[in-house]
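INFO batch 0412 | record 1 of 1 | parsing
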Amino acid sequence: MSTATLSSPRTTTEYESGCTYQLTAPAHPATARVAREFVRAVLLGHDHARLVDNALVCVSDAVAKTLRHAKGPNLSVEVNARTDRVNLYVRDGSLTGAPVPRELRTEDEHDPLLTRVRRLSSASGVTWLWNETHRAMTARVWVELRADGVIG
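INFO prediction complete | emitting tokens
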């Protein structure tokens, strides 16, 4: 599987740098709390205490959004921490595939969970994950938080 870090306005096919951490947990409402603790630990370990409050709200909302559409038994929460920013990713953990960006759909634009994520982050969005027959199988919610505190 190839990964992509989506940073407004550019994309890459590899993580630029930093450390990547991944948590796989059951597709269950309690996973939101586990994800918050996981993200808090990663951010504090990388001296990003300033980003913790916004990151915890964003990961909670991303987990809730993903739970609504999860098709598998697990969720995947990924954190890529760099000196200048942190990227969070939440998706149905049972599927693999290449991420392909897409425009937000009308229901995404008005989803209160994604609206709050957009207000608290530097950039955010939804990326489709495809299967080997090129059918969209699930979506991955991604969030970028910049260390300089720039939002939107």
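INFO post-check: The two ends are 30 Å apart (CA to CA).
INFO record closed
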